[in-house]
Design a protein that fits this description.
Helix content is 60%, strand content 0%. It contains 5 helices and no strands. Helix 3 packs across helix 4 and helix 3 crosses helix 5. The radius of gyration is 18 Å and the shape is elongated.
């Protein structure tokens, strides 16, 4: 018979305890930061899949290596138009947005 550990919590329960429920200002700030982090990681992975350095990607889309680095390391907000240009001109892709309500 399998023993169940009652001390385990789900990640969602952990977030509720640490940051409060969704809608709470502290939780929303966390969620926003996490989405920016995921975007940076996604761009970094796509860049590497294309075999590009940060400098090469920056040159292809008309920005700087420093700016690409800041996006990848979640140190800079990014405008939608810039994100679209990086994906289209730098990575040869198309951005699709989805809104979950």
């Amino acid at each position: 018979m399998k023993k169940v550990n009652k001390n385990l919590t789900s990640f969602s329960e952990h977030l509720d305890k640490q940051y409060g429920n969704r809608g709470n200002a502290k939780r929303e700030k966390y969620e926003e930061g996490f989405e920016a982090f995921k975007l940076g990681v996604m761009l970094q992975e796509l860049r590497k899949e294309k075999g590009l350095t940060q400098e090469q990607l920056a040159e292809k889309c008309g920005t700087t290596k420093t700016y690409i680095s800041r996006i990848e390391n979640n140190a800079s907000d990014i405008r939608l138009s810039t994100l679209m240009r990086i994906i289209r001109e730098g990575l040869g892709g198309h951005l699709k947005l989805q809104v979950d309500i």
